[in-house]
DNA sequence: TATAAATAGGATAAATTTGTCCGAAATAAG
DNA sequence: CTTATTTCGGACAAATTTATCCTATTTATA
């Protein structure tokens, strides 16, 4: 469904969100530990999230990654997915035709479109805040 | 969503179905041309589909791949996907946790489960026959 | 039986994704 | 200003997926 990089990115963003609630910045080391991911690879993904404006970074001593608390409810999962995997999952044909076009549809177009739109809506409606609260409350987990 | 191999496998199975309707066997060359895929790679995928019992192969002169016409309505897309990509898309966690477990759910578990089940139902309810008819009628296409 | 046509399968190569390493640049604190 | 800390960014390595090539095996027909 999502690439490994995207899975790590989503989990990292959620963890950063939980910490930003308490005004804490976190670095790649703490993030990788918390989401059970390779640290250096995770750092690369964080760079991409910064470049796309999903999270903010502060260099130097006492630096780290954070998300403006006021934005937590506005940043949706879709922004994270888009930043890492692009928009292919939203727009691409399920069978890999060059374009998904209702005028030249693949055999599963109609059925696939429904699923894809549901996924799109879910990602666009789910905020980092909501997911972070699930983790903070102990109802959800970022690692097994 | 699906691997390239799976995309090719689905399209190949649909094309074989359209030809089996007319009692014709087809080989990797014709299939690859029809679905716009690399021929040798497609041949490998066909081997997997044969091994999993999704399609039948006949070796030697006048051989090729076919699907029993009586089974066309019974063979579902899920069988093809399962044969090539396995069951991870049905059972795996959307964020890559080792297991998808409602007792130790990832932050998106509840929302993801809905999408995943819709996809599962779609794949389990859609027959090769139905998709092949779409192609034969000219309503759907296997290549752009 | 000989021949041609066709799938099966192993070895290999190319491309992409995933993952590591290390030095450069920035920044807070002493 | 110096030092310690931390992100940034490029180069590199490993693993996986995608793709190619060639030979063996099978089978219908002449
Ligand atoms: S054309 Fe394949 S999903 Fe739209
Ligand atoms: S635990 Fe992640 S989808 Fe179920």
Automatic annotation (TrEMBL), chains A, B:
One GO CC annotation: cytosol
Domain of life: Bacteria
Protein name per UniProt: Rrf2 family transcriptional regulator
PROSITE patterns the record matches: HTH_RRF2_1, HTH_RRF2_2
Database matches in InterPro entries: TR_Rrf2-type_CS, Tscrpt_reg_Rrf2, WH-like_DNA-bd_sf, WH_DNA-bd_sf
Gene3D superfamilies xref list: Winged helix-like DNA-binding domain superfamily/Winged helix DNA-binding domain (1.10.10.10)
Secretion signal span: none
Gene Ontology MF, one: DNA-binding transcription factor activity
């Amino acid at each position: 469904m999502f690439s490994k990089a995207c899975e790590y990115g989503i989990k990292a963003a959620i963890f950063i969100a939980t910490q930003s609630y308490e005004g804490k910045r976190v670095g790649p080391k703490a993030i990788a530990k918390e989401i059970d991911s390779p640290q250096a690879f995770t750092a690369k993904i964080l760079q991409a999230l910064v470049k796309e404006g999903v999270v903010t970074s502060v260099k130097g001593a006492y630096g780290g990654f954070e998300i403006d608390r006021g934005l937590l409810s506005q940043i949706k999962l879709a922004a994270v997915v888009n930043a890492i995997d692009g928009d292919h999952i939203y727009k691409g044909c399920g069978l890999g035709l060059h374009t998904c076009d209702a005028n030249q549809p693949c055999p599963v177009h109609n059925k696939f479109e429904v699923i894809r739109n549901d996924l799109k809506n879910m990602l666009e409606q789910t905020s980092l805040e909501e997911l972070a609260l699930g983790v903070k409350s102990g109802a959800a987990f970022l690692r097994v």
